[in-house]
Amino acid sequence: MTRKTIAALCCSLALLQTACAQESPVQKESEAITSQAQVQEQTAPVQAQLADTPAVVVEQPFSAPDEDWRDLDQENLLYIQTNKGRIIVELYPEIAPQHVGRIKQLARDGFYDGIIFHRVIKDFMNQTGDPLGNGTGDSDYPDIPAEFSFARDRGTMPVQMIGDMKSKLHGNTVNTGFYKALPVATPADDYMSMTKTDSYGLHCPGVTSMARSQNPNSANSQFFLMRAEYPTLDTQYTIWGATIDGHENLTKINIGVVGEPGFVPDKMLNVRVGSDLAENEQVNLQILKTDQPSFMTYVGSLRKKTGRSARICDITVPTRLKQ
Question: Which domains, ranges and CATH numbers included, belong to the chain?
Fold first, then answer.
Protein backbone atom coordinates (compact mmCIF):
# COMPACT_ATOMS: atom_id res chain seq x y z
CA MET A 1 0.00 0.00 0.00
CA THR A 2 1.13 3.57 -0.57
CA ARG A 3 1.75 5.64 2.52
CA LYS A 4 0.68 9.24 2.16
CA THR A 5 2.46 11.41 4.69
CA ILE A 6 3.29 15.06 5.15
CA ALA A 7 6.61 14.50 6.89
CA ALA A 8 8.06 17.07 9.26
CA LEU A 9 11.31 17.34 7.44
CA CYS A 10 13.18 17.71 10.68
CA CYS A 11 12.35 17.96 14.37
CA SER A 12 11.87 21.36 15.96
CA LEU A 13 15.19 20.87 17.71
CA ALA A 14 16.90 19.34 14.72
CA LEU A 15 20.12 21.23 15.32
CA LEU A 16 20.32 19.89 18.87
CA GLN A 17 18.93 16.40 18.50
CA THR A 18 19.00 13.59 15.97
CA ALA A 19 16.77 14.60 13.07
CA CYS A 20 13.51 12.70 13.05
CA ALA A 21 12.46 12.88 9.40
CA GLN A 22 12.47 9.59 7.54
CA GLU A 23 10.50 10.55 4.44
CA SER A 24 10.37 13.45 2.06
CA PRO A 25 6.91 15.07 2.14
CA VAL A 26 4.15 12.64 1.26
CA GLN A 27 6.47 10.07 -0.23
CA LYS A 28 5.95 6.38 -0.94
CA GLU A 29 7.58 4.12 1.62
CA SER A 30 8.94 1.86 -1.10
CA GLU A 31 10.83 4.61 -2.94
CA ALA A 32 14.13 6.36 -2.21
CA ILE A 33 13.90 8.98 0.53
CA THR A 34 15.56 12.37 0.81
CA SER A 35 18.96 12.02 2.43
CA GLN A 36 19.40 13.23 6.01
CA ALA A 37 21.91 15.86 4.88
CA GLN A 38 19.49 17.20 2.27
CA VAL A 39 16.67 17.32 4.79
CA GLN A 40 18.68 19.34 7.27
CA GLU A 41 20.04 21.70 4.65
CA GLN A 42 16.66 22.42 3.15
CA THR A 43 14.61 22.80 6.31
CA ALA A 44 16.73 23.73 9.31
CA PRO A 45 16.48 27.48 8.60
CA VAL A 46 12.71 27.17 8.21
CA GLN A 47 12.32 25.24 11.45
CA ALA A 48 14.51 27.69 13.35
CA GLN A 49 12.22 30.47 12.16
CA LEU A 50 8.91 28.73 12.69
CA ALA A 51 9.21 26.76 15.92
CA ASP A 52 6.94 28.06 18.68
CA THR A 53 5.81 31.07 16.63
CA PRO A 54 2.04 30.68 16.29
CA ALA A 55 0.05 32.95 14.02
CA VAL A 56 -1.41 36.15 15.38
CA VAL A 57 -5.00 35.44 16.38
CA VAL A 58 -7.91 37.76 16.93
CA GLU A 59 -8.15 38.25 20.71
CA GLN A 60 -11.36 40.28 20.55
CA PRO A 61 -13.85 41.32 17.84
CA PHE A 62 -12.51 43.86 15.38
CA SER A 63 -14.75 46.85 14.80
CA ALA A 64 -15.54 47.73 11.18
CA PRO A 65 -18.58 49.06 9.28
CA ASP A 66 -21.22 46.46 8.46
CA GLU A 67 -20.55 46.79 4.72
CA ASP A 68 -16.93 45.69 5.28
CA TRP A 69 -17.99 42.22 6.42
CA ARG A 70 -18.61 39.35 4.01
CA ASP A 71 -21.39 36.79 4.48
CA LEU A 72 -20.14 33.21 4.26
CA ASP A 73 -21.75 30.70 1.92
CA GLN A 74 -22.79 27.61 3.90
CA GLU A 75 -22.33 25.50 0.76
CA ASN A 76 -18.64 26.32 0.95
CA LEU A 77 -18.13 25.82 4.67
CA LEU A 78 -16.83 22.56 6.12
CA TYR A 79 -17.68 21.88 9.78
CA ILE A 80 -15.13 19.51 11.32
CA GLN A 81 -16.26 18.43 14.78
CA THR A 82 -13.33 16.85 16.64
CA ASN A 83 -13.12 15.53 20.17
CA LYS A 84 -11.04 18.66 20.92
CA GLY A 85 -13.54 21.12 19.50
CA ARG A 86 -15.01 22.40 16.24
CA ILE A 87 -13.05 23.73 13.27
CA ILE A 88 -14.81 25.55 10.41
CA VAL A 89 -13.03 25.72 7.05
CA GLU A 90 -13.96 27.94 4.11
CA LEU A 91 -13.71 26.03 0.82
CA TYR A 92 -12.50 27.54 -2.46
CA PRO A 93 -13.94 25.70 -5.47
CA GLU A 94 -12.73 28.51 -7.74
CA ILE A 95 -9.14 27.58 -6.77
CA ALA A 96 -9.25 23.78 -6.49
CA PRO A 97 -12.61 22.61 -7.91
CA GLN A 98 -11.84 18.88 -8.03
CA HIS A 99 -10.41 18.76 -4.52
CA VAL A 100 -13.26 20.78 -3.04
CA GLY A 101 -15.69 18.52 -4.89
CA ARG A 102 -14.05 15.44 -3.37
CA ILE A 103 -14.05 16.85 0.17
CA LYS A 104 -17.76 17.68 -0.11
CA GLN A 105 -18.51 14.28 -1.62
CA LEU A 106 -16.77 12.41 1.19
CA ALA A 107 -18.30 14.62 3.88
CA ARG A 108 -21.76 13.97 2.45
CA ASP A 109 -21.02 10.24 2.36
CA GLY A 110 -20.17 10.34 6.08
CA PHE A 111 -16.76 8.97 5.11
CA TYR A 112 -14.79 11.16 7.53
CA ASP A 113 -16.92 10.45 10.60
CA GLY A 114 -14.82 8.81 13.31
CA ILE A 115 -11.52 8.97 11.38
CA ILE A 116 -8.45 9.70 13.51
CA PHE A 117 -5.62 12.19 13.15
CA HIS A 118 -3.02 9.53 12.47
CA ARG A 119 -0.01 11.82 12.02
CA VAL A 120 0.32 15.05 14.00
CA ILE A 121 3.61 16.95 14.13
CA LYS A 122 4.31 19.91 16.40
CA ASP A 123 4.88 23.21 14.59
CA PHE A 124 3.75 21.55 11.36
CA MET A 125 0.38 19.92 10.66
CA ASN A 126 -2.47 17.54 11.62
CA GLN A 127 -3.01 14.75 9.06
CA THR A 128 -6.23 12.76 8.80
CA GLY A 129 -8.67 11.29 6.27
CA ASP A 130 -7.33 7.71 6.20
CA PRO A 131 -10.05 5.10 6.90
CA LEU A 132 -7.35 2.59 7.89
CA GLY A 133 -5.80 5.02 10.35
CA ASN A 134 -2.18 4.24 9.46
CA GLY A 135 -1.43 6.42 6.44
CA THR A 136 -2.00 3.78 3.77
CA GLY A 137 -5.74 4.09 3.16
CA ASP A 138 -7.96 6.05 0.79
CA SER A 139 -11.56 6.20 -0.34
CA ASP A 140 -12.89 4.01 -3.13
CA TYR A 141 -13.09 6.99 -5.46
CA PRO A 142 -10.36 7.55 -8.07
CA ASP A 143 -7.39 9.76 -7.32
CA ILE A 144 -7.52 13.46 -8.22
CA PRO A 145 -5.11 15.34 -10.50
CA ALA A 146 -3.01 18.06 -8.89
CA GLU A 147 -4.36 21.60 -8.57
CA PHE A 148 -1.23 23.20 -7.13
CA SER A 149 -1.89 26.62 -8.67
CA PHE A 150 -4.80 28.58 -10.11
CA ALA A 151 -5.38 31.28 -12.69
CA ARG A 152 -6.37 34.44 -10.82
CA ASP A 153 -8.69 36.76 -12.69
CA ARG A 154 -8.00 40.27 -11.43
CA GLY A 155 -11.54 41.29 -12.32
CA THR A 156 -13.33 38.63 -10.27
CA MET A 157 -10.67 37.57 -7.73
CA PRO A 158 -9.39 40.72 -6.01
CA VAL A 159 -6.36 40.31 -3.73
CA GLN A 160 -5.23 42.65 -0.97
CA MET A 161 -1.45 42.72 -1.21
CA ILE A 162 0.45 42.41 2.09
CA GLY A 163 4.12 42.30 1.10
CA ASP A 164 6.85 40.23 -0.48
CA MET A 165 8.40 37.01 0.75
CA LYS A 166 11.21 34.82 -0.48
CA SER A 167 10.06 31.42 -1.71
CA LYS A 168 11.75 28.74 0.40
CA LEU A 169 11.28 26.25 -2.42
CA HIS A 170 12.29 28.25 -5.49
CA GLY A 171 14.44 30.99 -3.95
CA ASN A 172 12.69 33.82 -5.78
CA THR A 173 10.80 36.74 -4.25
CA VAL A 174 7.01 36.57 -4.61
CA ASN A 175 4.20 39.06 -3.95
CA THR A 176 1.76 37.89 -1.29
CA GLY A 177 -1.73 38.88 -0.26
CA PHE A 178 -5.17 37.62 0.68
CA TYR A 179 -7.85 36.28 -1.63
CA LYS A 180 -10.84 36.20 0.70
CA ALA A 181 -9.37 34.51 3.82
CA LEU A 182 -6.72 32.55 1.93
CA PRO A 183 -3.07 33.70 1.88
CA VAL A 184 -1.75 33.51 -1.68
CA ALA A 185 1.29 34.32 -3.79
CA THR A 186 0.26 36.35 -6.82
CA PRO A 187 1.41 39.42 -8.75
CA ALA A 188 -0.18 42.73 -7.79
CA ASP A 189 -2.84 43.83 -10.29
CA ASP A 190 -0.61 46.62 -11.63
CA TYR A 191 2.04 44.06 -12.58
CA MET A 192 -0.28 41.57 -14.23
CA SER A 193 0.49 41.55 -17.94
CA MET A 194 -2.63 39.49 -18.67
CA THR A 195 -6.15 39.42 -17.26
CA LYS A 196 -5.38 36.08 -15.62
CA THR A 197 -2.12 34.97 -14.03
CA ASP A 198 -0.81 31.89 -12.23
CA SER A 199 -1.12 32.14 -8.47
CA TYR A 200 -0.90 29.68 -5.60
CA GLY A 201 -1.96 29.28 -1.98
CA LEU A 202 0.49 29.50 0.91
CA HIS A 203 0.81 26.87 3.64
CA CYS A 204 0.18 29.22 6.55
CA PRO A 205 -1.45 28.26 9.89
CA GLY A 206 -5.05 27.14 9.41
CA VAL A 207 -4.71 26.37 5.70
CA THR A 208 -6.03 22.97 4.59
CA SER A 209 -4.24 20.93 1.94
CA MET A 210 -4.43 17.47 0.38
CA ALA A 211 -2.01 14.64 1.12
CA ARG A 212 -0.62 12.52 -1.69
CA SER A 213 2.08 9.99 -2.51
CA GLN A 214 5.15 10.86 -4.59
CA ASN A 215 2.87 10.90 -7.62
CA PRO A 216 1.54 14.50 -7.88
CA ASN A 217 -1.82 13.20 -9.13
CA SER A 218 -2.53 10.79 -6.27
CA ALA A 219 -4.62 12.87 -3.84
CA ASN A 220 -7.73 11.00 -2.72
CA SER A 221 -9.16 11.40 0.80
CA GLN A 222 -6.32 12.21 3.17
CA PHE A 223 -5.75 15.85 4.05
CA PHE A 224 -3.95 17.98 6.60
CA LEU A 225 -4.55 21.18 8.55
CA MET A 226 -1.56 23.42 9.12
CA ARG A 227 -0.55 24.10 12.73
CA ALA A 228 2.26 26.44 11.61
CA GLU A 229 3.78 27.97 8.50
CA TYR A 230 5.64 25.56 6.19
CA PRO A 231 6.55 27.25 2.89
CA THR A 232 8.44 24.30 1.38
CA LEU A 233 5.03 22.70 0.76
CA ASP A 234 3.87 25.57 -1.47
CA THR A 235 3.11 24.48 -5.07
CA GLN A 236 3.77 20.87 -4.04
CA TYR A 237 0.36 20.07 -2.50
CA THR A 238 -3.14 21.24 -3.38
CA ILE A 239 -4.62 23.83 -1.02
CA TRP A 240 -8.41 23.80 -0.95
CA GLY A 241 -9.47 25.76 2.13
CA ALA A 242 -8.63 27.95 5.12
CA THR A 243 -9.76 27.76 8.74
CA ILE A 244 -12.04 30.65 9.65
CA ASP A 245 -13.22 29.49 13.09
CA GLY A 246 -11.68 27.22 15.72
CA HIS A 247 -8.04 28.15 15.09
CA GLU A 248 -7.31 27.46 18.75
CA ASN A 249 -8.37 23.83 18.30
CA LEU A 250 -5.75 23.13 15.63
CA THR A 251 -2.98 22.97 18.22
CA LYS A 252 -5.04 20.98 20.73
CA ILE A 253 -4.86 17.82 18.59
CA ASN A 254 -2.56 15.27 20.25
CA ILE A 255 0.95 15.18 18.80
CA GLY A 256 2.33 11.85 17.58
CA VAL A 257 2.19 9.21 14.87
CA VAL A 258 0.16 5.99 14.92
CA GLY A 259 2.44 3.18 16.04
CA GLU A 260 4.48 5.31 18.43
CA PRO A 261 4.35 4.09 22.05
CA GLY A 262 1.85 6.01 24.15
CA PHE A 263 0.28 7.96 21.29
CA VAL A 264 -3.50 8.31 21.67
CA PRO A 265 -4.87 9.87 18.47
CA ASP A 266 -7.68 12.38 18.46
CA LYS A 267 -10.47 12.00 15.92
CA MET A 268 -12.99 13.77 13.73
CA LEU A 269 -16.36 12.93 15.25
CA ASN A 270 -18.24 14.16 12.20
CA VAL A 271 -17.60 16.32 9.14
CA ARG A 272 -20.42 18.16 7.38
CA VAL A 273 -20.94 20.69 4.60
CA GLY A 274 -22.63 23.72 6.16
CA SER A 275 -25.60 23.73 3.78
CA ASP A 276 -26.44 20.16 4.83
CA LEU A 277 -26.88 21.16 8.48
CA ALA A 278 -30.15 22.22 10.02
CA GLU A 279 -30.40 26.01 10.20
CA ASN A 280 -30.06 25.98 13.99
CA GLU A 281 -26.79 24.01 13.64
CA GLN A 282 -25.20 26.48 11.23
CA VAL A 283 -22.94 29.21 12.58
CA ASN A 284 -23.95 32.52 11.03
CA LEU A 285 -20.45 33.95 10.65
CA GLN A 286 -19.21 36.94 8.71
CA ILE A 287 -15.56 37.55 7.84
CA LEU A 288 -13.80 40.83 7.26
CA LYS A 289 -13.49 41.64 3.56
CA THR A 290 -9.79 41.58 2.79
CA ASP A 291 -10.16 43.94 -0.19
CA GLN A 292 -11.55 46.78 1.94
CA PRO A 293 -9.61 49.54 3.81
CA SER A 294 -10.79 48.17 7.17
CA PHE A 295 -8.68 45.08 6.63
CA MET A 296 -5.50 47.11 6.21
CA THR A 297 -6.47 49.05 9.35
CA TYR A 298 -6.61 45.69 11.11
CA VAL A 299 -3.22 44.67 9.69
CA GLY A 300 -1.80 47.96 10.92
CA SER A 301 -3.18 47.28 14.41
CA LEU A 302 -1.11 44.09 14.56
CA ARG A 303 2.05 46.15 14.18
CA LYS A 304 1.07 48.22 17.20
CA LYS A 305 0.72 45.02 19.23
CA THR A 306 3.92 43.33 18.08
CA GLY A 307 6.17 46.24 17.14
CA ARG A 308 6.82 44.86 13.67
CA SER A 309 5.03 44.62 10.34
CA ALA A 310 2.85 41.54 10.06
CA ARG A 311 3.99 38.89 7.61
CA ILE A 312 1.37 37.13 5.51
CA CYS A 313 1.36 34.00 7.72
CA ASP A 314 1.08 36.08 10.90
CA ILE A 315 -2.40 37.28 9.96
CA THR A 316 -5.70 35.64 10.86
CA VAL A 317 -8.63 37.36 9.14
CA PRO A 318 -11.20 38.48 11.77
CA THR A 319 -14.67 36.98 11.91
CA ARG A 320 -17.83 37.89 13.80
CA LEU A 321 -21.35 36.59 14.30
CA LYS A 322 -23.68 38.30 11.86
CA GLN A 323 -25.31 41.32 13.46
Answer: 56-321 (2.40.100.10)
